[in-house]
Design brief:
The protein is of the alpha/beta class. It has two domains: 245 residues, 3-Layer(aba) Sandwich (Rossmann fold), CATH 3.40.50; 77 residues, formyl-coa transferase, domain 3 (2-Layer Sandwich), CATH 3.30.1540.10. It has a six-stranded parallel β-sheet, with helices on both faces. Strands 9-10-11 form a three-stranded antiparallel β-sheet, covered by helices on one side. The protein has a three-stranded mixed β-sheet with strand order 13-12-14. It is elongated and about 80 Å long. It starts with 12 loop residues before the first helix and ends in a 5-residue tail after the last helix.
């Protein structure tokens, strides 16, 4: 039995335990919907991938012929999108035209057994097709209806399209990313999409638990822009505490020093000496004990104020040896530190391999494909090295029609 199968209602528990799964249905963002109505796809692809990893049966409803947008995103292996494959392991695919009478019947039959519907069309799109929350909650009172969109289901911007970078910019994140006085810099991953996907997943799990108590489904409304505001952390605290508008600081932490990347003989090292004791250990290890009592550095507040002076001093010592040398010494003194890895080094890190953070899935045409694993490790459940198959478009139609006893 999977984790999610324990959270579902008693009225559907027998069917779901028989499958060993909870059922999540989600609509690809371009399922027979004009391109102008597409919001994004990565947010709900992330959400449903996490739910699949946690044990949900995920049925992906895609547009006939084309499928969801991410099937056309590079890089490609033998004309198949590695991007798509990295986010769709273990999901089932069925192609439906929701403007077709027969396909609507299939969709509604699946929906009648689903615990959760996940969609990320622009607000109002599903309403036009007869699948608004107000309609579905009457037909399927236990259904959890999760919507992830650019700006949410309410507010003056609700009808506008959005992609990850749009909300990175509007959410303030790009204004605090990059080097001082540098050009606008995008965060190196699709964090606008990914955070929305993760918050949607959290909302779905909370809604499943709530349904155990109330017996009722609920609507979840997650805005990508809202999620960017939610993760501003120190930046928003600085603004509301003293009116300061934060700016990019490179690798520096805005409130702690020394806490950034420092130059060594061969590369850079991250040092995060977050308190007085760690700073003392750092100075002792670098053999510059005189700075422990230096008036500029005797507290974190003063070190942060004088962070530029402190960086010049520390790098004067650090550039004499390579990064690996310092990591060995600092680690012995329990000083938090680390190298800056490229992607190859990161995925080949023995710690990452040991934690099963690189897994593989099978694809019918290209064979095994490697991808990032699930960071959620649960003591009662295995964390397999091989995940569910990567679906081709409409691959599971026959299986789904059979499972749901649908005759067309």
């Amino acid at each position: 039995m999977s984790y999610l199968s324990r959270t579902i209602s008693k009225s559907t528990i027998l069917w779901l335990i028989f499958l060993g799964l909870a059922l999540i249905t989600f609509l690809a963002a371009n399922a027979n919907c004009p391109a102008s109505n597409i919001v994004s796809s990565v947010s709900f692809l992330t959400c449903t991938m996490v739910l699949s990893d946690l044990g949900a049966r995920v049925i992906k409803v895609e547009a006939p012929e084309t499928g969801d947008d991410s099937r056309s995103f590079g890089p490609f292996i033998k004309d198949y999108s590695a991007y798509f494959m990295s986010l769709n392991r273990g999901k089932e695919s069925i192609a439906l035209n929701l403007k077709s009478k027969n396909d609507k019947k299939i969709f509604e039959k699946i929906l009648s057994k689903a615990d959760v519907l996940v969609e990320n069309f622009r607000p109002g799109t599903l309403d036009k097709w007869g699948y608004s929350w107000n309609v579905l909650k009457k037909k399927y009172p236990r259904l959890i209806y999760a919507s992830a969109s650019g700006f949410g289901q309410t507010g003056p911007l609700k009808s506008l399209p959005a992609y990850d970078m749009v909300v990175q910019g509007m959410g303030g994140l790009m204004s605090v990313t990059g080097q001082p006085d540098g050009k606008p810099t995008r965060v190196g991953t699709s964090i606008g999409d990914i955070t929305a996907g993760l918050f949607t997943t959290i909302g779905i799990n909370a809604a499943l638990f709530d349904r155990e108590k109330t017996g009722k489904g609920t609507k979840i409304d997650v805005s990508m822009l809202d999620c960017q505001i939610a993760i501003l952390e120190n930046a928003i605290a600085r603004y509301f505490s003293n009116g300061e508008i934060p700016k990019p600081m490179g690798s520096r932490h805005p409130s702690i020093a020394p806490f950034e990347a420092y130059k060594t003989k061969d590369s850079f090292i991250i040092i995060a000496a977050g308190n007085d004791k760690l700073f003392e250990n750092l100075c002792n290890t670098l053999n510059c004990k005189e700075y422990i009592k230096d008036k500029r550095f005797i507290s974190n507040k003063l070190r942060n104020t004088n962070a530029e002076d402190l960086k010049i001093i520390l790098e004067k010592y650090l550039v004499n040896e390579v990064t690996d040398h310092w990591i060995k010494l600092f680690t012995k003194m329990n000083i938090p530190c680390g190298p800056i890895y490229n992607i190859k080094q990161a995925v080949e890190n023995p710690q990452i391999i040991f934690r099963n953070m690189i897994v593989s899935s099978d694809h019918k045409k290209i064979g095994k494909f490697k991808m990032a694993g699930n960071p959620i490790k649960m003591s009662n459940y295995k964390d397999p090295k091989t995940r569910g198959e990567i679906p081709e478009l409409d691959q599971h139609r026959k299986k789904i029609l059979k499972d749901f006893k649908i005759k067309i």
